[in-house]
Amino acid sequence: MYKALKEKEKTIAVVGLGYVGLPLALAFAKYFRVLGFDIHAGRVAMMQQCIDPSKELEPEAFQGKDIRFTAEAEDLREAHFFVVAVPTPVDDHKVPNLKALLSASETVGKRLKSGDYVVFESTVYPGCTEEDCLPLLEKESGLKVGKDFKLGYSPERINPGDKEHSVEKILKIVSGSDEEALKNIAAVYGEVIEAGIYEAPSIKVAEAAKVIENTQRDLNISFMNELSIIFDKMGIDTQEVIKAAATKWNFLKFYPGLVGGHCISVDPYYLLHKAKQLGYDPQVILSGRRINDQMPGFIAKRLVQMLIQQGKSPQNTKVLVMGITFKENVSDIRNSKVVDLVRELMEFSVNVHVADPHASPNEVAHEYKLTLIDKISSGYDAVIVAVNHKEYATLDMDYFQSIATKPFILMDLKGIYERPSDDIIYWRL
Fold first, then answer.
1. What is the pLDDT of residue 83?
2. Is 133 a catalytic residue?
3. Which DSSP symbol is given to 174?
4. Which phi and psi angles does 406 have, rounded to 5°?
5. Would you say 221 and 257 are in contact if contact means Cβ atoms under 8 Å apart?
6. Catalytic residue among 50, 128, 133, 263
7. What is the CATH number of domain 2-201?
8. What does the domain layout of the chain look like in residue ranges?
9. 268-315 per-position pLDDT tens digit
10. Is the pLDDT of residue 161 over 80?
11. What is the pTM of this model?
12. Residue 68: enclosing H or E segment and its boundaries?
């Protein structure tokens, strides 16, 4: 397979061209013939014009690449090596939503041919590739894995907004349904991954490795969030505590904050789901999720307390929230916990203005029924800097005082700024 792909006798198809699939497709297209497929025709049209809908890649990234973009599923019949990179979110009840993954499996299965390879990159619980996706591939194609086609799993490790750690520079885990599959999959990915390839002994191991990467971060951040709640009651600055503790050589430096997005705040629920299927009710993982999910409410209540302490009635105050994307310097608003914070404040009848230089006003309105302000005004009783966008990092206290009333509260959720003088009431996690 690798030799045929390298000589461009066969084609790689990347199914799902979001923040994971598109960079990977373009990386493959440096060395192989690639077909990029996405069900959203509007997004495909943008990519055909060398525009990344996720706003992660510049037009230059599309230049000189052997790639064709399509929204026509029948075009997938041209491909022989399929990489599935579709979203795997959770629903409103925190249950894994495999709709896109299973739909993609059916779509690929209908075009699968003898000798083909299918590699999944979507984050799932251990066993999902072989227990949920594989049966659909076999049913739709009439083929059998091992005998007629090969299966693999290679977890994505894309970090949105990170220009330094591009897809080529992140070590890649690969796995296959048998030794031949593993070697060919490793060779294909090895052609583009400069950081190296790790061959996992099984598909389930590769799946599990991915899901615990983000679960580990979620738990570490939840611990810091719980500490920040405790230290706030003590009047201790958590950031200063971390700075002091970090002087020990083996201290792990994590910070409190809002945990949103489509990885850290989602992946633990996949592991929880599988564990409960097996009759085990995880305690530590669930506790970490509960703490992180409650942080927007904690911050909102803390601000209301501070406003009341200043003699201000919440329903007569105006608060500016700066940043609504799930992390800094990206346009992605999926599962943003800032939204939860805004809604918590609105429950207290606070007049909330939301601004973000990276988010799309139309997407925010469509997804969350919230309006982004066009221009930051003045007369704010409090400002919450919720996301560490580069545009906010250079702001000084003179700027905040220029848009605020007195007394004025500044909530710095990311610990961006040095503690100011006493004429500003400063609070951070």
1. 97
2. no
3. E
4. -120, 135
5. yes
6. 263
7. 3.40.50.720
8. 2-201, 236-428
9. 999 999 999 999 999 999 999 999 999 999 999 999 999 999 999 999
10. no
11. 0.90
12. strand 67-70
